[in-house]
Amino acid sequence: MLRPRERENTAVLTPDELRIFHRDGCVAIPRITSPAEIALLLEIFARLFATGVGRRQGAQYDMLSHEEDAAPRTLPTIINPIDYARELRDLEFRSNALHAARQLLGPRAVPSFEHVILKPPHIGAATPWHQDEAYRVDAGFTYSQVSVWMPLQEATVENGCMHYLPGSHRFDVLPHKSPGNDSKVHAIECVGDFDPMQGVSFPLPAGGATLHHGRTLHYAGPNRTDSPRFAYILAFEIPPLRASKQRSFSWMTEKRTPSILLKRQWRRRGGFVIEGWRKMRRGLWLRPRQFMFEIYRAFRALTPSSKCTDSTEAPQNINHFRPRDGQPK
Ligand code: NI
């Protein structure tokens, strides 16, 4: 089972970086892992994309096209690549990202999910402006989440580095939609009231990282260079609680992507057992509160009457997301 590697120094973020994060909803740090680990990750992810692992389980897909299309994959991703490569279980990046998440969210922060995104040379597409919380399938919970985004090569404006709208973590979840109003496309884009021209680019060295809150609006440009752009993202959260107010993320409940259908078919063929085992192997059994959330969410998914009612009001009071003065206990 996974346990964070013991390290003496658990303060990944400096006091200044913590202050910037809580002011802007995002912060960049110059290094979160070693060059040797970056080289290892590049090798692993090139292999995982080339061999198509997880495609039949709905875990590897293109975020912007229908998988049955012959069209080139312009924004391929693998969800929870840790399930397909043992080498990813014990990483300096994983340990440091967890410590940073606990500095931001407090000691109850736990790993939520992870993915790797590839922007192929020349055709790698832009990731539309969005808030990560808008991707949550069940809007009936309160979420406090942080994502740690690490490029595996230098990230520049030319190859698709991150752009953030500073301060947008104080917004509610804004309306989103599927690109082209096509519910068979996995990605979502924000159509709420914000000015993308106020976005700020965050170029980074390989092995650096940006950290952003679940409501911070962000975007990554297309890859116009000759080299692939990989980014590995680890997400953390405080185990969600049921929301007192109801809301609906219609853009997610309407989704009918080929990867969702593949995942359902796989689960029906017995994949749910493997899925449960993988969650335990990722350490879910060590986190009773998150375990209860998973059980409760699965139960809600099976009972249509328990789905959320329509409301655009977000239930989460962002004020509870405060800087922590201490280190994780
Ligand atoms: Ni995102």
Could you please describe the fold and organization of this structure?
This protein has a single domain (15-316), classed as Jelly Rolls (Sandwich), CATH 2.60.120.620. Helices cover 26% and strands 21% of the residues. It is built from six helices and 13 strands. Residues 1-8 and 305-329 have low confidence and may be disordered.
Which key features would you list for this structure?
binds nickel (II) ion; 6 helices; globular; 26% helix; 7-stranded antiparallel sheet; alpha+beta
- Continuous helix count: 6
Radius of gyration: 19 Å
* Main beta sheet strand tally, sense and closure: 7 strands, antiparallel
Content-based structural category: alpha+beta
What's the count of strands? 13
Low-confidence spans: 1-8, 305-329
Overall residue-averaged pLDDT value: 86
Q: What global shape is seen?
A: globular
Query: For the terminal residues, how far apart are their CA atoms?
Result: 21 Å
The succession of helices and strands, N to C, reads HEHEEHEEEEEEEEEEHHH
What's the arrangement of strands in the largest beta sheet?
Answer: 1-11-6-13-4-3-2
